[in-house]
Amino acid sequence: MQKVATTGNATIIAYDGKPLLATDPWFGDEDPAYFGSWVLSHRIPQQLKDDILACEYIWFSHGHPDHLNPASVERFKGKKILLADHVGSRIYEDVSPNGFDVTVLPDRKWVTLSDHVRIHCITTSIQDTILLLEVGGRLFINLNDAGARDCSRYIRSISRHYRHSYVLALSGYGDADMINIYKEDGSFLVPRAAKKPSVGAQFNNLVKATGARSVIPSSSFHQYQREDSMWAQAYTTPFEAFQGGLDPGIEFIPPFSSVDCETGRIETAPHEELVVTPRPSTDFGDDWTDQLEAADIKKIEDYFSRKEPVRKHFGFVTFKVGGKEHAFKMAGRKDRGITFEVPRGSLMTSIDYRIFDDLLIGNFMKTTLHGLASLNDAPGKFNYSVAKYGDNGRAETEGEIAKYLAEYRRRAGIDYLVSMLEDQSRNFLTRFAKQDTPLYRMMKQLYISLR
Questions:
Q1: The domain containing residue 358 runs over which residues?
Q2: Residues 76-109: pLDDT tens digits?
């Protein structure tokens, strides 16, 4: 039996006579993520849980807790943990001292796991990893949350040699990111997810980028359960939306399906919807009335003092905790800054463990922008400087970040230059048409076709 099954959120199980490899196994129907904010949308069938636990190899793409969950990972001691070779080695150094058998795989090279299964890691500068999985001569392109930026030409150079290829990726309306954001005047910054952008169109672009022939929705099946984040449930993506807008020449394989790699037969297993009861934040150690202590304030000051782009280009970062504001002054423009309204418990956990991204994605923290259009605005690029490069990549000064990005550019090669040209072309297009208008979509499709 040579087979690939998908289940849960981003979990792929590869079989070669027996369960061999599981990717990003998050038992999210039992182990919540993002300080209790996220759980799975559907239960994982017990047989598939048993198969995951029977796998010899466990592979993790990145450190977000819906992929590498602190509770779920404890079930895999005694297994062979496989990681990509990321700059900074954050996950390796966090996991390996805790009794796990960890192997760091070479970047952009095939590694054989059995007679009919081999894998190929592609690292990205946002500390995420793409996995190319070959089972029985079929190619599965697992983009998870990474996208295909800076490596699409490389992936196509591989996928063109396969008659059967499948792309799996984060897709949907876009709530799997920070969307609890407000403007300085107090108005809610309505997320793009409110417009319910075509998911099929996203897949069309991914197929063009990777050269895949089929798509399987993945890395997209969560829901909210905290009382203070349940509002975001309105922006999640229903099952029926994943196929809408897909080009007719592309094969759509439903979520939670398996592919027999010897015959091509596809089976879709029934999954039970997980019905949640909203839970108070106190169940997860977050009391909104708790105040910061003097030691907490010192830790926050030290944390941001190390993040040079923020310290240099922002005027302030303010935390409103327990109803009291604490403003941390920076050296940049006085009118540029961010206010975070957040419970003490999760804030200090994110500072202590360098997981600020988890606060942003949990969507219970309220974020107010001052003199900014988004958290990714240059030159400070808060989200990248703090979470991606800083916490996860361990590059905190501008010099360290420059060296960090240079290494990923070296790995990407010509794909990096192509991406830069694409960015310039995209910026040129957006000067003539606003996003999500018919003219913009027409110009975007023309641009993709020319690419």
A1: 285-397
A2: 999 999 999 999 999 999 999 989 999 999 999 9
Count of domains for the chain: 3
* Structure token pair of residue 226: 């905290």
Show the beta-strand stretches assigned E in 322-359: 324-329, 337-341
Domain boundary among 261, 281, 301: 281
Q: What is the 3-state secondary structure (H, E, C) of 382-402?
A: HHHHHHHHHHHCCCCCHHHHH
With respect to residue 407, please indicate whether it lies within any of the assigned structural domains.
no
Chain-centroid distance of CA 6 in Å reads 17
Same domain, 8 and 89: yes
**What does the DSSP assignment read for 105-163?**
EPBT-EEE-SSSEEEEEEE-TTS-EEEEEEETTEEEEEEETS-STTTHHHHHHHHTT-S
The angle subtended at Cα 179 by Cα 9 and Cα 324, nearest 5°, is 120
Provide the 3-class DSSP secondary structure of residue 281: helix
pTM above 0.90, yes or no: yes
Distance of CA 284 to the CA centre of its chain: 22
Per-residue pLDDT of 348-401, as tens digits, reads 999 999 999 999 999 999 999 999 999 999 999 999 999 999 999 999 999 999
The Cα–Cα gap between 168 and 131 comes to 10
